Amino acid sequence: MCGIVAYAGPRPAAEVLIDGLKRLEYRGYDSAGIAVVVEGGPVSCVKSAGKVNALERLLRENTPELMEAAGCGIAHTRWATHGEPSDVNAHPHSDEKGKFYIVHNGIIDNYQTLRKRLAEQGCVFRSSTDSEVIAHLIARFYQGDLPRAVAAAVRQLSGTYGIAVVSPLHPGMIVAARKGSPLVIGLGEKENIAASDLAAILPSTRNVMYLNDGDLAVMTADSVEVRNFENMPIERETTRVEWSADAAEKGNYPHFMLKEIFEQPETVENAIRGRIDHEMKSALLSGLNLTPRELAEIGRIVIAGCGSSMHAGLVGEYFFEDLAGIPTEVEQAAEFRYRNPIIEPRTLVIPISQSGETADTIAAVREATAKGALVAALCNVVGSTVAREAGRGVYLHAGPEISVASTKAFTSQVTVLLLLALLFGRNRRMDRTDGARLIAEIEALPDMIRKVLEQVPEIERIAKRYAHCNDFFFIGRGPLYPAALEGALKLKEISYIHAEGYHAAELKHGPIALLDPAHPVVALANNIPGRDKMLGNIQECRARKAPVIALVTEGDAEAEALAGDVIRIPECSRYAAALPTVAALQLLAYYIAAERGCEIDQPRNLAKSVTVE
Question: What's the gap between Cα 156 and its chain centre?
């Protein structure tokens, strides 16, 4: 969950590294540091608690010459797991003699055993981190060959890691290794750059090489050689990334989150583009690589995901069961592996992950594969671990999502799940007329979201009215129940307000005891099946004097009359309702957080890509 950058080339290394850290700061932002190796000189290592701007200010004020020095280097922005955020615990870490510097993303499970053993051998530890043991191990194994020493060191490690190593004994060389944490190498003209995410690489090059688990890369300005942990050369394919660096910029928006909310009409269009079969009234999803007969043989679907991806899966459960008649269940990806799930021969497992690097979802993919399931992933990042290990699936085409709180990835996930349900439905019991009707609604989704975005002034007014409240309930029914979960998650993530999502029928089973005038309820009362019962729930809330913010279908005067404040959603069926509804909830959460002065793109204690368990 940390960000790593490593650079070898003719440009000032510190400038490249700082720029890369800024682009990766959504992966961790409690401390940062760099280590630069200049030919013939010692390693210059500077690190600081706080955000990357604090590190940059320290460099420019105290070591301006370092910002101009050519060389190679490594950098890190941290999301703390072991040891509180501090200058000492910030990366890079080194051995006691300052000969080997490392940055690390992941968790070393056996670090305490290694640390005790190394301390008995005379190693002096400065930090409280698990990562520092790696530098000391490299020093113990070093006999003149840095790649061999790194390979020997990582063979001692248990856990997950993406690491990059530099040494003044080998100026111009960077050694990187991966197991369970993402690493990608950008291949440039007389320069190469490695990072834990494409965002840090795209300003330099769009030609990339993804490392697999068990890969060790030896990188200089002129070459990249990939080996295994036994130090034997192996080949890795080079691919070209279609994203541009501009896609990861804020533009004129105050926050990435707001930009990404407003990108949703286009990203949903991208998820749909080229995937509608108008002749057959079905969907075209070639990434599944399944014949009609193989599709028809699927007897059960299991969806695995975490956070927003799990909520998208819960919406998809309604799609698959209602439109295709396929029994479907949704698993929290972390639980999937540990509860030993029953996977039958005709089971399709759909892991969902924006980054494709979520540790728990990767583990679910591996467990499903080991149990003989058919696995098809929904990912946003080409070449990600989930995408590669699943071997088949559907890309979201949402572009880079920088804000920690997911917005456009969620709506793209739901859109792709609806396309999948269309495909499965037409493969089974859905006739051409119903297929055509669903296609028309899918193609109308971008405009539905645009209509919601036009209500910003009203949503901002409502947000300001309730921003002082410290407890919210979100309630919904049917496919809008997971939408309520997602709305509550968005609010708690970025505003730090206690928010809970409930199925509306659950109000009477306990939560209603908490309702009072200081406890607003966001009621998803769209005109879909269950709407009449939702109106009854709203009356229950009003009877307890709880303020109600109702999301209602345009023109539903009865529903509007019951609510204190109203956000209008375009008329649509229950299959489309979650997308414009969640877009409205994203805006509500955003403007409440903005009114409270919160750090919206980088909320406390959270990181974008959860690459550790």
Answer: 29
- Between strands 101-108 and 159-166, the pairing is antiparallel
CA-to-CA dists, residue 4 to 7, 55, 95, 193, 400, angstroms: 10, 15, 19, 10, 17
Residues 411-448: tens digit of each pLDDT:
999 999 999 999 999 999 899 999 999 999 999 999 99
Q: Which two tokens stand for residue 333?
A: 């990806």
Positions marked catalytic: 2, 608
**Is there a cis peptide before residue 400, judged by omega within 30 degrees of 0?**
no
pLDDT of 325 reads 96
**Residues with Cβ within 8 Å of residue 577, at least 6 apart in sequence:** 479, 480, 483, 526, 528, 569
SS (H, E, C) 82-111: CCCCCCCCCCCEECCCCCCEEEEEEEECCH
Most distant CA atoms of the chain, gap in Å: 79
User: Is the dihedral angle over the CA atoms 27, 90, 141, 113 positive or is it negative?
Assistant: negative
From the centroid of its chain, how far is CA 363?
Answer: 16
DSSP letter at 513? G
Q: How far is residue 340's CA from residue 312's CA, in Å, rounded to a whole number?
A: 23
**What is the distance in angstroms between the CA of the first residue and the CA of the last residue of the chain?**
10
Contact 481, 454 (CB under 8 A): no
Mean pLDDT over 272-297 rounds to: 94
| Average pLDDT value for the chain | 93
Residues 425 and 442: their CA atoms lie apart, in Å, by 14
Q: Is the pLDDT of residue 244 over 70?
A: no
Q: Does domain 455-613 have CATH number 3.40.50.10490?
A: yes
What single DSSP character describes residue 509? G
* DSSP letter (8 states) at residue 234: -
Q: Which of 491, 548, 489 is nearest to 524 (CA)?
A: 548
Helix (H) or strand (E) holding 78: strand 70-78
What pTM value is reported for the model?
A: 0.85
pLDDT tens-digit readout, 142-152: 999 999 999 99
Smallest CA-to-CA distance from 343 within 368, 313, 320, 376 is with 368
Structure confidence at residue 16 (pLDDT): 94
Question: Quick one: pLDDT at residue 42?
Answer: 79
Per-domain boundaries in the chain: 3-243, 250-452, 455-613
Instruction: Choose the CATH number for 250-452 among 3.40.50.10490, 3.30.1060.10, 3.30.70.20, 3.40.640.10.
Output: 3.40.50.10490
Q: Does residue 600 contact residue 468 with C-beta atoms inside 8 Å?
A: no
Q: Which fold has domain 3-243?
A: Glutamine Phosphoribosylpyrophosphate, subunit 1, domain 1 (3.60.20)
CA 258 to chain CA centroid, Å, is: 17
Q: Convert the pLDDT of each residue in 495-508 to its tens digit.
A: 999 999 999 999 88
Task: Decide if 250-452 and 455-613 have a common fold.
Answer: yes
Q: How far apart are CA 178 and CA 184, in angstroms?
A: 10
